[in-house]
Amino acid sequence: MAQTALTQHRGARADALREVITDLLDTPDGATDVVTRISGTWQHYGEGDNPLIGHRVPDFPLDDGTSLTTHFRAGKAVLLDAGANVATTAAPWSDRLTITTARPTAFPDQPLAAFIRPDGYVAWVTPGQTDLRAALTTWLGRPRTVGAPT
After folding, report:
1. Which residues lie below 8 Å from residue 115, measured CB to CB, with a gap of 6+?
2. pLDDT at position 2, please?
3. From CA 113, how far away is CA 19, in angstroms rounded?
4. Backbone φ and ψ of 97, nearest 5°
5. What are phi and psi of 24, to 5 degrees?
6. Which 3-state string (H, E, C) describes 110-147?
7. In the beta sheet, which residues pair with residue 81?
8. Which has the closest alpha carbon to 107: 147, 75, 79, 80?
9. In Å, what is the CA distance from 146 to each residue of 42, 93, 124?
10. pLDDT band at residue 79, thresholds of 50, 70 and 90?
């Protein structure tokens, strides 16, 4: 609403306000604050037993030469299974889930897993996780039954 007001209203007051906002955006702190508010990266959803749950996952490089965001291109949720051996548990949801076993380069030897919603928010993570099946069912619905068409 504020952005719309700045672009639609005319007159001395609106011009003065636009000038103040322009000066604010010319500072690193001001620009960061405005971009953070507009982008919604400050938002988090729900609470879990791990502080990452409900927060946006950053894009980070993986040891297969990709980055995490490349695995979202199909528009599906992503399960990052970096040595935690949870891919088999998630297999019944593979029609709605991209599963990757690539490891984050920042944690090459640490087993970890994260289920990330298609919008980039973490829904489940190890360690200290709730049941992966429950998280998959909550966000992706019932699992595909064996022998059912995909």
Report:
1. 77, 78, 79, 90, 97, 122, 123, 124, 125, 132, 135, 136, 139
2. 73
3. 48
4. -145, 135
5. -60, -45
6. CCEEEEECCCCEEEEECCCCCCHHHHHHHHHCCCCCCC
7. 113
8. 80
9. 40, 11, 24
10. very high
Cβ 143 vs Cβ 137: under 8 Å: yes
Helix (H, G, I), strand (E, B) or coil at 62: strand
To the question of pTM greater than 0.70 for the whole model, the response is no
Cα separation values, 98 from 70, 71, 75, Å: 11, 7, 9
pLDDT at 128 over 60: no
Beta strand residue intervals within 69-111, DSSP E: 77-82, 97-100
pLDDT confidence of residue 10: 82
Measured in degrees and rounded to the nearest 5, phi and psi for residue 49 equal -90, 10
| Whole-number Å distance between alpha carbons of 132 and 115 | 8
- Work out the average pLDDT over 48-63: 81
DSSP state of 58: P
Strand order in the sheet with 112-116: 97-100, 77-82, 112-116, 122-125
